[in-house]
Each structure stands twice: as C-alpha cells, then as structure tokens.
C-alpha cells in the first residue's frame, strides 16, 4: 500500500508546505493594516515593507515547489 502512495508524496508535501507562506502573507497584510490604522502617516513606509516581506515569503514558497523536482 505504501508503494502505491510513493508517487504522490511530493505533491502532498508541497500542499502542506504551501500552508506556511499562506499564513505568513496573511499575518504580514493584517499587521500592515493594523499599523496603518494606528498611524496613517506611515502608510507609505509600511506598504513598502509589506511588499518586501511578501516577496521573501513567496520566495520560500517557490523553493518549496522546486524542491521535489531536485530531490529523488
């Protein structure tokens, strides 16, 4: 039974790995909205930092999707 599931283990692994960046992006956006509500004059700086954080989080997701192709 385990040998039959072996081919889709990487797909299941990426599905689980995609949860982390999804939660991370949600937290980053939520905290940016909270910070903008507290200090509206900092909205520009917060938005720039938010996009930088989202880019780094998405880089982790891309590493997660590419890893199964390189590892046997």
Structure description:
The chain is mainly α. The chain has one domain: F1FO ATP Synthase. It has 4 helices and no strands. It has helices at residues 2-5, 9-17, 19-38, 43-70. The two termini are 20 Å apart.
Task: Report the end-to-end length measured between terminal Cα atoms.
Answer: 20 Å
CATH architecture grouping: Up-down Bundle
Global structural class: mainly alpha
Total domains: 1
What is the gist of this entry?
It comes from Brevibacterium marinum. By secondary structure, the protein is mostly helical.
Task: Write out key terms for the chains shown.
single chain; 72 residues; mainly alpha; F1FO ATP Synthase; membrane; ion transport; hydrogen ion transport; ATP_synth_F0_csu_sf
Which helices and strands, and how do they pair?
Elements: H1 2-5, H2 9-17, H3 19-38, H4 43-70
Helix pairs in contact: 2-4, 3-4
């Amino acid at each position: 039974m385990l040998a039959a599931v072996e081919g889709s283990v990487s797909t299941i692994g990426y599905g689980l790995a995609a949860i982390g960046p999804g939660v991370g992006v949600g937290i980053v956006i939520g905290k940016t909205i909270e910070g903008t509500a507290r200090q509206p004059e900092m909205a520009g700086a917060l938005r720039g930092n938010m996009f930088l954080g989202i880019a780094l989080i998405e880089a982790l997701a891309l590493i997660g999707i590419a890893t199964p192709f390189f590892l046997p």
